[in-house]
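Incident review: delayed structure delivery

Summary: a single-chain prediction request sat in the queue longer than the usual turnaround. Root cause was a stuck worker, restarted by the on-call engineer. No data loss occurred. The affected request and its eventual output are reproduced below so the record is complete for anyone auditing the incident later.

Affected input:
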Amino acid sequence: MSVRTNRASGLIRKEIALMLLGGEIHDPRLSGVVSITDVEMSRDLQYATVYFTMYGGEQEAGLEGLKSSSGFIRKQLGRRLKMRRVPELRFKSDLSMVQGEKIDRLLNSIDIPPPPKDGDE
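Output delivered after worker restart:
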């Protein structure tokens, strides 16, 4: 990734997170805590894939809520950022946190006996 795409993705991530934190996006499907985990920009800065995770709400409903709010988000990004063209936003669920929690639960459920102490063989 170039410096330009890195900078643009970081700015977009920050601004969308601020919109969510400030309660600017009013969609009932975004009832839980939404966290923007990453933004990937295309080389020509025409498209931005926004990865998010949602706590305390339905991930699929959150995806639909963000998709329906994408026009408002783009409009706000256009006002806040000095970009020639605001990229088209594509939202995708980031399931890595959910999968990590699932793996943690599975590992914690395994009953592993403690290793034998020296001389207890």
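Verification: The domain at 3-109 is CATH 3.30.300.20 (GMP Synthetase; Chain A, domain 3).
Action items: add queue-age alerting; document worker restart procedure.
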